[in-house]
């Protein structure tokens, strides 16, 4: 089959690779109809995650048709021909974490858990297409994928919604939603979102759906801010104004009630990535890697507010503003998204027309053009917000 693979730092390549096979009784094989490129893929491609190997199949946002079902998948659960969206965390459904609906912390899904333990001092769950640190599972930017624990993860789509309407249930819609949900939004709340990428856009829409009075979008890309503005959010360009001052201005001097970091490792600062690569190998994060979206969020949030972090971080974080966090009684919440928790309720919101996930799609390309998709998404060319690939 054809698959988009990692070919060294800052390089992806579509190659012929072996078709996936059922390896475990609870696996299914999915023929992929749509898959997407995510900001998290940029961390991998840029070398932020040092456990990528040449030829690793990328991609953790995908959906398609079940073409083969393992013998231990319950017969009333999935069948050949079913249309499914696959959540990015691989979760067993039975461990203590899964039982508590902390699916992205599954204790049984990463056969390489020792690598993360050694690098970060804590284990990580399995994730599709996310390097050997998270299990070495082949990803979904491909024609087919093996989906483990198929009786836990995939969501069957039985209505006639298009791929574009449901694909993002695999990751970024639940992630943006979880970012907003962790804020415990009250009707008078002003919510500020750092990052107007795909995750940030869905955090903004979710904040509104959850009742926020006003939502502020912070980024530096004019076209991304414009996209947020068109959806009814208030744009703030951090290249043009001092973010904290502008936020105080917009909130009567108190700061936003809730702040969401949808930036993380700063996928856009390419040179910092390369310079940081060797240090990251030792799992050390320093000031020069500039986690400034998070720092700004903590420094801007009003007393007693919530800072919700869905941007991805790894390893250690230096220069954390512990003083502002402590003295202003802030609550800090975070996590890789527990996607399985949100798929059904968000599908219902899509069906009711409360959220339109298609609004962020700017590019639809054949799988073979994945390298171009990565290029324009990473470098913010052609006003690219979200690329959907068609294998
Ligand atoms: P993206 O790279 O398209 O978007 C990031 C945006 O942040 C860009 O538009 C960039 O211009 C902006 N930005 C950079 N520095 C900023 C700053 N200091 N202040 C404000 N904005 C800034 O990526 P995306 O797909 O939207 O993903 C965003 C983040 O969410 C990434 O870190 C990604 O890994 C993470 N993510 C987390 C989860 C999860 O489960 N928690 C899931 C998916 C993605
Ligand atoms: Zn993603
Ligand atoms: Zn589990």
Automatic annotation (TrEMBL):
Keywords: Metal-binding, Oxidoreductase, Zinc. Pfam families: ADH_N, ADH_zinc_N. Residues 198-268 form the Alcohol dehydrogenase-like C-terminal domain. Signal peptide: none annotated. One of its GO terms (molecular function) is oxidoreductase activity. Residues 26-155 form the Alcohol dehydrogenase-like N-terminal domain. Its cofactor is Zn(2+). Belongs to the zinc-containing alcohol dehydrogenase family. PANTHER family: DEHYDROGENASE, ZINC-CONTAINING, PUTATIVE (AFU_ORTHOLOGUE AFUA_2G02810)-RELATED, ZINC-TYPE ALCOHOL DEHYDROGENASE-LIKE. This is Glutathione-dependent formaldehyde dehydrogenase.
